Amino acid sequence: MALLRLTLHHAKPYWAWVVGVLVLQLLSTLAALRLPNLNAEIIDKGITRGDIDFIWQTGGVMLAVSLGQLVAAVLAVYCGARVAMSIGRDLRREVFRKVDSLSTLEATKFGAGTLITRGTNDVQQVQMLVLMALNFMVSAPIMAVGGIIYALREDAGMAWLVWASVAILAVIVGFLVWLLLPLFRNMQGRVDEINGVLREQIMGIRVVRAFVREPFEEDRYRGANENITRISVQVGNVFVLMFPVIMMVLHLATAAVLWFGGHRVEAGEVEIGSLTAFLQYLLQILMAVMMGVFMVMMIPRAVVCAERIRELLDTKSTLEFSETEQVATPSEGRVEFNDVTFGFPGAELPVIKNMSFVAEPGKTTAIIGSTGSGKTTLLGLMLRLFDPQEGSVTVDGAPVSSLTRGQLADTLGLVPQRPYLFGGTIASNLRFGNADASDEELWEALRVAQGEDFVREKEQGLEEPVSQGGTSVSGGQRQRLSIARALVAKPRVYLFDDSFSALDVATDARLRSALPEATAGATTIIVAQRVSTITDADQILVLEDGELVGRGTHHELLESNSVYQEIVRSQLTEAEAV
Questions:
Q1: 3-state per-residue secondary structure call for 176-242
Q2: How far apart are CA 168 and CA 466, in angstroms?
Q3: Residues sharing a CB contact under 8 Å with residue 453, sequence separation 6 or more, in sequence order
Q4: Closest alpha carbon to 531 in 353, 335, 370, 374
Q5: What are the chain's domains?
Q6: Measuring CA to CA, which of 18, 128, 285, 506 is 20 to 30 A from 551?
Q7: Is the pTM value of this prediction over 0.85?
Q8: Mean pLDDT (whole number) for 16-33
Q9: Which of 251-255, 485-489, 573-577 has the lowest mean pLDDT?
């Protein structure tokens, strides 16, 4: 049912093409059914009687019918391919949009490997089934039913051969489908597994090499590869069994027609031309069944893929954004947490507990704490990657849940903990948040982010190609480009999630010195591990196990907060701390 609903829903915009395919397939099939009858007439009325004119006349009709069948078949395949490829395109677009709308929680629940598979391999399986169905769903049943009718007209005495052959093939097909359905379901799971392992290994290749874990990762990949190979071999074994059995049925049916038909011709119960036509019609019937077999063999895998796609498309995102602006876009950038509590599904304890603070425009708020204290989660709540379970997060008094995606992007600019660059050029990456930014604005952002020098050294400058993920530049350069990208967007609130960790101390100092001028009037929130990065902040929030255990300036906390004192002592000498 999932497969049927999915294909019918996405085929609606192309109903005219579908009707065209069905009409062309109908014409092609009717032409094919007419040919054996014309052949029988040539044998019985032309050859046996020596009527050359009848042979030429009927032969011309056969040629015309054959040409018409060829044209109709070619056009039907073309139209069917257009419809199938269009449905595949629409499905991929819908899957991509759904994945893009999922919250971080739902995307993590599915996993990157299966999301990639569902948007590529699964859609391709459904697409190929639609193509096969459009090519065969009219011609196969009409050819089978029409062939039976014409065969009975030619020689009703051998009808039992038709029924026996069709029944045997039907039993074979049903048995094969019963075998294949669980195998294909298992196969898609193994495709997810190998995609996930391969993606993880490619992304973590540096870590793998650093710890000399190549043999271990090779074993992991070998295991996933052997799993999918084993399932594929089992599927292949079924297909290998299918073709000899079907061909055996065809040859046995042919032999039976010639044997029993020969006796009927000898007894004068049927003419040679009629026997020839009966044999051709029987072969057409069995060929139609074979075409149906090919399509039916694809159905189990397509059904599994459609269910997986439907599962993804039916997933309700926990984050719903309004399409229309309900409140004005924040213009100042005052961020306020009001008694916010948040925990991940299945976790025993919340990550953020009763958090309340205010980040004022024109000032810098720093967040520091031990690993796992909830610093990045705090920024995720501001960006609405997930919603708080209790309390509210507001910007200029407007809850972030009331902002549209566009308003949220215009208001908040993030430099993530792990900077990511997209394939393209340096300029295209910097313009990611502001497509209309001029080259002068890009250079100014690079100057503030301390990235101007290394970009000018590039042969093509701003147009220097960047590989996917930013692997063509160093970690520090990638981090500086990410900071420049946020500066080009000019949001009202800047969120720096430990964004200076890959910079040396001198570059860090120059960047912090240039930032206040570039972000003047905006709210700046910095998550940091290094105390030296945040000593000049107007307000420092100290987190411990998801709770706010300290708030104040560097000197205030140094005198009164034990957690902050411990962090400072672990990084700075007593002279540096003061």
A1: HHHHHHHHHHHHHHHHHHHHHHHHHHHHCHHHHHHCCCHHHHHHHHHHHHHHHHHHHHHHHHHHHHH
A2: 60
A3: none
A4: 370
A5: 2-313 (1.20.1560.10), 335-577 (3.40.50.300)
A6: 506
A7: no
A8: 75
A9: 573-577
